[in-house]
Amino acid sequence: MSTQMRSGWGGEVVLALGYGFLYLPIVLLIVFSFNESRLGSNWTGFSLKWYAALFDDNSMLSAAMISLKIAFFAATAAVVLGTLAAMVMTRFKPFRGKTVFGALITAPLVMPEVVTGLSLLLMFVTLSAPFDWTPKGIFSIWIAHVTFTMSFVTVVVSSRLAELDKSLEEAAMDLGANRLKVFFVITLPIIMPALLSGWLLAFTLSLDDVVISSFVAGPDSTTLPMKIFSSVRLGLNPKINALASLLVLVVSTAALIGWWVSYREEKRRLRDMQLAVQNG
């Protein structure tokens, strides 16, 4: 009995240390965002002046808006393209080049970001002359972010599609539904939690990217991570603490909403399956 208690306490201690290692720096960052002193190591009193200074910084707010817009549209496009790629990999019959297709889709997962950013920059420069468009800008960042976030979405959605019971789709087609209707009526509601998870993952990765954005960003398309990185290199800036605290709040809220929607969908799916079994 004592051995079991010691093993239980040991697991809880390791778990607490793990959570502390992950989240204690974030908690300290949020706490010191309300510090009146400019020095991050000395607490001199509670103050909101750094939040006020942040909202007076137009360049920082502009960079934040650019990052949020790019992350939203990049995540949306990545979910659409990643879902199509996942359907090809899990639902289509084997075809010539399927292995190469899967390798190319997942290549950005293991590709160094420096290589990805440089290759995209060279491609944009090559295509800029025939199509007469600027190789560096918001559109270039959006394409670059869709390119590497789509791989993550494909992996998440593919795993969910692989676990999906194909008999549900086959039963719907036996009842006269075409493949398109089966996808929107049967498949899409079931994989919706995976789509939400993939969207949140792609949104976070796009919002956090520095390396790839640095290669393809123009003078008028500085993203928030690039702005923060350049500001920190010049010295500690308390406004960064305030901005990071707001980002933690936004991302945590989005994750909570996504979890709640996924929980509702999964609960509804289980209830429908139980009703189907009872009626059957």
Q: What report would you give on this structure?
A:
With 280 residues, the chain is an all-alpha fold. It is built from eleven helices and no strands. It has two domains: 30 residues; 232 residues, MetI-like (MetI-like fold, Orthogonal Bundle). It is globular, with a radius of gyration of 23 Å.
Which terms would index this structure?
280 residues; mainly alpha; MetI-like fold; 0% strand
Helix and strand layout, with pairings?
Layout: H1 2-32, H2 49-56, H3 58-91, H4 98-110, H5 113-131, H6 138-163, H7 166-174, H8 179-208, H9 211-216, H10 224-233, H11 238-279
Helix pairs in contact: 1-11, 2-11, 3-6, 3-8, 3-10, 4-6, 6-8, 7-8, 8-11
Brief overview, please?
The chain has 280 residues and is mainly α. It contains 11 helices and no strands.
Distance between the termini: 47 Å
The helix/strand series, from N terminus to C terminus, equals HHHHHHHHHHH
Q: What would CATH call the homologous superfamily of the largest domain?
A: MetI-like
Percentage of residues assigned to helices: over 70%
User: With helices defined by DSSP (H or I, 4 residues minimum), what is the helix count?
Assistant: 11
Indicate the mean pLDDT: 83
**Number of individual domains:** 2
Main pleated-sheet profile: none
CATH architectural type of the largest domain: Orthogonal Bundle
Low-confidence region ranges: none
Based on secondary structure, the structural category is: mainly alpha
Instruction: Indicate the proportion of strand residues.
Output: under 5%
